[in-house]
Structures are given as structure tokens and as C-alpha cells.
Amino acid sequence: MKPIFNLSLYLVLDPDLCGGEQGMVATALAALAAVAGGVTIVQLRAPKWKKRQWVSAAFALKAALDPLNIPLIINDHIDVALLVDAAGVHVGQQDIAPEMARQLIGPNKILGLSTSNAGQMAAVPLDIVDYIGVGPVFATGTKLDASPVIGLEEFALLMQIKSLPAVAIGGIGLGRVAALRAAGADGVAVVSAICGQANPQQAAQALRLEGEISDV
Amino acid sequence: MKPIFNLSLYLVLDPDLCGGEQGMVATALAALAAVAGGVTIVQLRAPKWKKRQWVSAAFALKAALDPLNIPLIINDHIDVALLVDAAGVHVGQQDIAPEMARQLIGPNKILGLSTSNAGQMAAVPLDIVDYIGVGPVFATGTKLDASPVIGLEEFALLMQIKSLPAVAIGGIGLGRVAALRAAGADGVAVVSAICGQANPQQAAQALRLEGEISDV
């Protein structure tokens, strides 16, 4: 059965920002422990890493997240996801195509796809993909090969044509969550707004609270 | 059933040196067409590529190689190998560990592992790995993260302790093949000695001939 997932606060763990494997596990656990609700889903993304390190970190994260029922999503590397039995996989437009990714992971894993414009959103195979990432909404320093910035106004238009749950990504931090949720995002994905923050628990709680307010 | 493989002349295709996907297919086909025997096994290695491009090139190479019964080996990305049903996978010391790679590919695929010293060779799980790459024997410009150069003398010592078929790699070109085979290598792996050569067919034939002489 496919795991239930909640995109509200989607933490993308970057080892450079999070202090490597140990830092990522610690950050994820802290960001989950927020009293008023923390991150709801976690992705591992380490574009500079070799795969032996990916596997090690993915096993460590899975061991930390499974007891809390928080899905672990593996970016790009489906072989790593299969090995550690992750909850799902996230692919970009230049990664393995969604149809092929689904073929590899089977029906019971979550599959996310990055999109950055209306054309890419219209091309998403709705019976294959479970959620889309939409971005970068704002300028970001944490993904060097990102597409052109969308902006909040265009993002709101994209949310009106979406056919799948959508998480906003790119330059998102405190003060930007409410507007994105109001524009129609089902959640926000953050990297540096939690990774590398002095208090990841507090950071997660504040982001989550800002999102919840807009849900009312 | 696991495909039979012959390491005699192992062509590693690099898109930068081979003119991208089309150039790689053309090079492989030319290098196979040598009258006196050409390359015997082909690996795709494209560390700079995103995976959608890997998949496209791997399908194209497989279509070209299958009719000739030449095994296609995919470097590092086991997800790509599974998708295109490649003959095998090659992993390095920092890639997915051989035991885990075997778990993903099952018993009927070829599994190769890079080694560069006696300690790494002694640690190879013999019931899991099918062949080892040993190198870099000589200095190479085509693999930027290569280990320290072994040299021919040390390579000959390593060949005396090997327990699996071994292919020499690293800086190998015409004039170096006979000595490596005489030292005990079951074959030689080349990149630039065929990729980017004006006449890949002739280059492959000359390399193969030099290897065969040492077999007598």
C-alpha cells in the first residue's frame, strides 16, 4: 500500500548545509519534534555525494523516520531508494522519466516530479505521479542548476491549473509560507530554512505554524 | 543465465571523448567491426550526465550491441541498468557496495568492481563479483577522481594474487597491451585509445592484435 503523505512542510536535507550524515539525522529529528507540528515529509538530496554515502545516510534517515511515520523520499537515485526501501522517489525533468521510475519502484511507492512551468505541469502523467514540486518560486542558492524563478503571481496561476498535490520550492523561508499556501500550494519545501539553522525544531515549528494559519 | 563475457578489449565509452550519444554508438559499432576482432565488452560511463540522457544512450547502445552479443555494462547507476536490462553493472569503491548491487540486479547480471590495491582486492566478495578492474595502471586524464597510479611492476604483483578475471585500466593504449597481458591481465580497458580516435575500427583492431600476440 502506498504510504499516506502530507506535503505541508517538506524538508529537503542537503548534507552541505546540514553537517553531513549525522547532521542530517539530527536536523530531521529536531525538525520533527516541534510541539505544534514539525516537518511532515523528508527528502534526501546530495548531488555531490557518491552512492555509498547515499546508502549509508538513507539507511540512517529511514531508521530515524520510520518510527515517526514520516516518509523518506530519495531524490533522483532510484537504486538507492530500492535498496533502503524508501517511501518514495523524487525525480526532475532531466532524471529518469516518471513512467520508467514507476516501472522500477512499483505501485506502492510515492513518486514526485519537479515542474517549473505550465507546459511541464500539463505533461505530468496523472496516473503515475503522486505529487509535483513547483519551483523555483523565489531565487535560491541551494540548487545551482535550477530553472528560472517563477514568482508568486505566476505561481498562483500555476496552482489554478494543477491536477495533483503540489509543493512549492525555491527560496522559501519564514514570511513566505502563508502567501504560498493562500495561492494554493499544498505545502512548502525548504532546505536552508531548516538545514543549518541554529534551532531546527523552532524553525520547523514557526514554518508549520505560518502554513496552518493560512489553512483556516 | 549470466551472459558469457570476454574482457580482452573492454571499451569504456565516455560521451565527452566520443561525441555524445550518437558518437558513442558509432564508435562502439566501428570498434566492434574490426576484421581481426574488435572490442569484446562495452561500458557506458558518463559522470557528468543526468539520468534521462543515460537512459537514452543506454537504450541506443543496447540496441546496437545486442545483435552482436556484446555485453553492455552500466557504470555506477544500477537504476539505469535495470531499466534498459543491461548485461551488467560496474561499481567503484565509493559506489553502491557489491553485496547490495547484487541484491538489486539478481544473479543473472555481470557485476564488476574497481580495485586499486591488494587490500581492496582481498576484500572482494568472490561469490558476488564477476570480474575486477585494476587500476589506474598508468596515469590517465579521463578519470579525474582516480586513485594513485599503480605502475606495471606492482600491477604484475597484483595479478599474481587475483582470484577473479581482471581487466587493467588507466592510461592504456597501443604499445602497453602486450606487457599487461603478459603480466596476467585478462584484458585491458580503454577509453581514449578508441573514443575520439580518427579510426576507431583500426584502433580497436590494433589493440586487440597486440593482446592476442601475448596470448600465444
TrEMBL record, chains A, B:
Cofactor(s) needed for function: Mg(2+)
Q: Which reaction does it catalyse?
A: 2-(2-carboxy-4-methylthiazol-5-yl)ethyl phosphate + 4-amino-2-methyl-5-(diphosphooxymethyl)pyrimidine + 2 H(+) = thiamine phosphate + CO2 + diphosphate; 4-methyl-5-(2-phosphooxyethyl)-thiazole + 4-amino-2-methyl-5-(diphosphooxymethyl)pyrimidine + H(+) = thiamine phosphate + diphosphate; 2-[(2R,5Z)-2-carboxy-4-methylthiazol-5(2H)-ylidene]ethyl phosphate + 4-amino-2-methyl-5-(diphosphooxymethyl)pyrimidine + 2 H(+) = thiamine phosphate + CO2 + diphosphate
Q: From which domain of life does this come?
A: Bacteria
List of residues binding 2-[(2R,5Z)-2-carboxy-4-methylthiazol-5(2H)-ylidene]ethyl phosphate = 140-142, 171, 191-192
The membrane spanning regions, by residue number, are 23-44
| Pathway of action | Cofactor biosynthesis; thiamine diphosphate biosynthesis; thiamine phosphate from 4-amino-2-methyl-5-diphosphomethylpyrimidine and 4-methyl-5-(2-phosphoethyl)-thiazole: step 1/1
Which CDD domains does the annotation name? TMP_TenI
List residues binding 4-amino-2-methyl-5-(diphosphooxymethyl)pyrimidine: 75, 114, 143
InterPro entries given in the database record: Aldolase_TIM, ThiamineP_synth_sf, ThiamineP_synth_TenI, TMP_synthase
Give its E.C. classification number.
2.5.1.3
Tell whether Metal-binding is among the UniProt keywords: yes
UniProt keyword annotation of DNA-binding present: no
UniProt xrefs under HAMAP family:
TMP_synthase (MF_00097)
UniProt similarity note? Belongs to the thiamine-phosphate synthase family.
What is the protein name stated in its UniProt record?
Thiamine-phosphate synthase
Question: What organism does this protein naturally occur in?
Answer: Iodobacter fluviatilis
